[in-house]
């Protein structure tokens, strides 16, 4: 599968201008809905670390799809320059880029409504990062979450890791983006982009809009093995994370092994019952319910039975994505999809997710 990229800044900006001119800054949709798109430009990026997991989808990608209908100019980038701040094997990185592109398309990112491109194909990202880095102090970067977390884990860090947030700022400002979908853990990085935009504008004249945050309303999906930590692809426990390319049997196995507690009733209490509450939050998110509706759906079920109900709801949600990823990759097995000898031989629960 070929990744749709613009190989020069001129071509990319030309595409953006064509898209904006065609749609207008605020355009009404056709048909009975008469849906109005907001003006401004949305930008967001995602690292190519293979096929995303359920937490990535519910926390970001699902909202990305919706933003295509809400804004008249939307750009999404596979940010491979960010990925190389940590050691990468070149062949695996290339494969991860293709897997990420396939996943984004499978999730609903539509090239007719947004621009999807590979960051490293546009050299101006790195060029603007250098300019903005000359406007950013080292003490400011030392206190940002990315450096504090990653350098603490490694007890040291590269220059690239240290200036990672400056490259993020360049990603956003390069396209004069006005809105950026972020999670709470990325707000400080967006604030840096806002600050360097103000500094640049003050010194060189008004050029960059001050980008605003679009905070996700989705709850953070927690690890199935440690519900006090967020779900992560880097988790050493294979049963902790549900990948979008996992088979139905793998998903059932992971939810059956999910850590809960010794109380059989299903309730939502994140402080005292984080494991069960994580299941409820996932169930609510994949079904489009409130947590109260998810809890009501579990009345009369013990926790073990509820795990299978949630597993089926997740399978129902991700099955079309998994099938489309495989189609786009030409039927290849993708990263994150593996055969697990521990999967149960028997059939899945017959319970299904209510629509």
From TrEMBL:
Top-level class of the enzyme under EC nomenclature: ligase
Organism the protein comes from: Synaphobranchus kaupii (Kaup's arrowtooth eel)
PANTHER family xref list: TRYPTOPHAN--TRNA LIGASE, MITOCHONDRIAL
Keywords from the UniProt entry: Aminoacyl-tRNA synthetase, ATP-binding, Ligase, Nucleotide-binding, Protein biosynthesis
GO MF annotation, one: tryptophan-tRNA ligase activity
GO biological process: mitochondrial tryptophanyl-tRNA aminoacylation
Domain of life: Eukaryota
Assigned GO CC terms: mitochondrial matrix
EC number(s) reported in the record: 6.1.1.2
Coiled coil residues, start to end: none
Family the entry assigns: Belongs to the class-I aminoacyl-tRNA synthetase family.
Location(s), subcellular: Mitochondrion matrix
Entries under CDD domains matching the protein: TrpRS_core (cd00806)
Chain's role: Catalyzes the attachment of tryptophan to tRNA(Trp) in a two-step reaction: tryptophan is first activated by ATP to form Trp-AMP and then transferred to the acceptor end of tRNA(Trp).
Name of this chain's protein: Tryptophan--tRNA ligase, mitochondrial
Pfam entry (one): tRNA-synt_1b
Catalytic activities: tRNA(Trp) + L-tryptophan + ATP = L-tryptophyl-tRNA(Trp) + AMP + diphosphate + H(+)
Positions of region (Disordered): 331-355
Lineage of the species this protein comes from: Eukaryota, Metazoa, Chordata, Craniata, Vertebrata
Main location: mitochondrion
